[in-house]
Amino acid sequence: MATASEIAIPQSAADIAPSWVQQVLQKDLPGITITDVDVKGSISEGEGFMSSIIAFDAMGTRNGTTQRYSLVAKLTDFARPLTVTEEWSKDFHIRAETLEVKFYSDAVPELLSVLISNTERESTPMNEDEENPPPTDSLFLPKCYFAATDPNSMLSVRVMENLKTQGFSIKPDRQPLDREEMMLATGALAQLHGLSHLLELRLGKPLDEQYDWIMTSKDTLAAKDEITHVYQKSVKEFATAFPDVQTDLVARLEKLDPMIIFGETSKRKVLCHTECWINNIMIKYDGDRPIAARLVDWQSPMHKPPTYDLTLLFLCNASWDVFHNHRDAILAHYHHKLQETMGPNESSGLKSYTLEQLKADFRADCLHGLINRFIRLAVLPASADLLRMIQEIQEWGVL
């Protein structure tokens, strides 16, 4: 990934020119020459979060052959007025946007270096010059070529591969994920969690100490009033949608403190996405069969237990059938992928995390996913499936 000091940040789509794109790509693609850029225009206005996603194709040559790259540039203007989510302060959004830049520029290269190291260790090269790149068809996130923020102009940019041109898409109308789609999403989380754990072992210190920009409880405490307001408002909407729900259940929901989802814990921790809901999961299909998943919008990674991501994934994306009948199989798949990511040579930390411990932690941490679902009730309306999931969680004695 090119460094911020080398490359200017575009102020608009008009600045996405061949010379600029060549600078962006040449570190990852040495010898590239970009001769033309076709800017397609904005494919997303970021739902009012100060960003536009500009799609463009870059044409040129590398190693004597013609090349074409389908890319997107996520441009953020911190002076841009917010158009939605008036409950959240602009400072909170600015923090999230700059954090995503830090994640791609600082954490991702180190996570991928761990992946490459594992790939090399597990392979048997034919000769010393043979390369062992990470399996790019199974990475948990899109490839990012450049991410930077200019504190003077208050602009930021992330240049990434265009997943849409590769066949990836977000499920329309916020439909729940089916069993196989959930398998893919948990597999992506398992790779993130496993690699972050290996990186932590390599560094010899917790990731929230290595990366002082990771969102912490202090960041969320700054938005405590907004989070509490949204949660309590959503509980009332839920009670109105299901007037026959037991008064006791509604009372239990009202008594929950939404800030518990950001509290400290003594459980083992990994780098969590924390926003793994339907809008941030892109899936690729072969016909009707899902074959790959990518996680996008890395604006709030935190150092938390892996079940924080998993409970949010289930409560915000699964139907009642998947939650009730396929949960154990999906968690077993996650556990297998987690162990596979860490490899046979690792013997400490998460390597000793058993499937039964994972299932127990999932139940214990389910309130984390439940509160996150209520915070998103405006975009993920209350449903009969959600009610049945809440009732099952109540039966566990957690709620």
Automatic annotation (TrEMBL):
Domain CHK kinase-like: 158-344
PANTHER family, alphabetized: PROTEIN KINASE-LIKE DOMAIN-CONTAINING
Superkingdom field: Eukaryota
Gene3D superfamilies, sorted: 3.90.1200.10
InterPro entries: CHK_kinase-like (IPR015897), EcKL (IPR004119), Kinase-like_dom_sf (IPR011009)
Name listed for the protein in its UniProt record: Uncharacterized protein LOC118426518
Organism: Branchiostoma floridae (Florida lancelet)
